[in-house]
Design goal:
Blueprint (H helix, E strand, L loop, with lengths): L3 H9 L5 H12 L1 H6 L2 H8 L3 H10 L5 H11 L17 H22 L2 H13 L3 E5 L2 H13 L6 E3 L3 H8 L7 E5 L6 H13 L2 E6 L5 H5 L2 E4 L10 H23 L1 H16 L4
């Protein structure tokens, strides 16, 4: 995804309107400001409407302002900022741990910058209103889906998850328009995850996804898309690095749901604690 943001603006520039070119000039000159500012802040600075900025983002191929921010965040990472990832054979275990921790910190900071508060609110509202919430993921993403289930089953939300891919598809086919399907796919282009999404869409259930690529097939087709921002290195894939961000988004949604239905959630958490207490010595 690197270079896609700035390079994409340059390629579309001749076909932009005067107002859109004004926005493009600002983005090309100050991409770091876009990453750290809201759409309203940019619109006010350039004396254009929020809608104009939104149209500009779509004109150059992005779903919206947040998607552009994700692309720019990848563009403006400099080699110096990635030095902490440069693990060598001479590094001690402690030094390697420090570099991995620093990498995770960057992933969390970058993801926080590109998270859309409206999408987060909408995701929380869908989970709160769902008759049933199912969490889906394939391969490494299934571990994140199971972690989400482990959390939300305590919250009072009727949560479900399955480790087997066939069981996921079977269960997805039984959803209704009162349910929510939550899909984890870093690439947003996993064949299994995409097939599952198509199965869910036939049921009328609402869909939420966490992905690192807003322009991906899954990112474009779900009702709510939450995005992570991570970096690939020689020793860790981008998908592996994004896992910590996915888990953190789930933590944030879990706490939001808990706070929005505190009394019900407290009763549910207490039931879980009492059940688990019997297993402890």
């Amino acid at each position: 995804m690197a270079q896609q943001g700035l390079a994409g603006i340059t390629s579309h520039y001749p076909r932009l309107s005067d107002k859109e070119k004004k926005i493009a000039d600002f983005v090309l000159a100050h991409p770091e400001q876009i990453v750290h500012q809201t759409i309203s802040q940019v619109a006010d600075k350039l004396e254009v409407s929020d809608a104009t900025v939104s149209r500009f983002c779509k004109r150059i191929g992005y779903k919206g302002y947040q998607a552009l921010k994700i692309a720019l965040a990848a563009d403006i990472i400099t080699p110096n900022e990635m030095l902490h990832e440069d693990v060598s054979e001479q590094d001690t275990a402690k030094v390697i741990a420090e570099k991995i921790f620093h990498s995770n910190t960057r992933t969390l900071e970058n993801t926080l910058q590109v998270l859309d508060d409206k999408e987060l609110e909408q995701a929380a509202a869908l989970l709160l209103g769902a008759r049933r919430a199912e969490f889906y993921g394939f391969g490494g993403s299934n571990m994140v889906a199971m972690d989400a289930y482990h959390k939300f089953v305590r919250s009072g939300v009727s949560a479900f998850a399955f480790p087997d891919s066939h069981l996921q598809l079977m269960s997805a086919s039984q959803l209704s328009d009162q349910d929510v399907a939550f899909i984890f796919s870093h690439s947003g282009a996993s064949k299994d995850a995409y097939q599952l999404l198509q199965t869910v869409k036939k049921t009328g259930a609402k869909t939420i996804a966490i992905t690192g690529f807003p322009k991906s097939p899954i990112g474009r087709q779900v009702d709510v898309a939450l995005h992570t921002s991570s970096e690939e290195t020689e020793y860790r894939s981008e998908a592996l690095a994004s896992r910590i961000a996915q888990l953190s988004i789930i933590d944030a949604l879990y706490v939001t749901v808990i706070m929005r239905q505190k009394q019900k959630a407290q009763a549910s958490v207490e039931k879980v604690r009492n059940a688990i207490a019997a297993t402890k010595m």
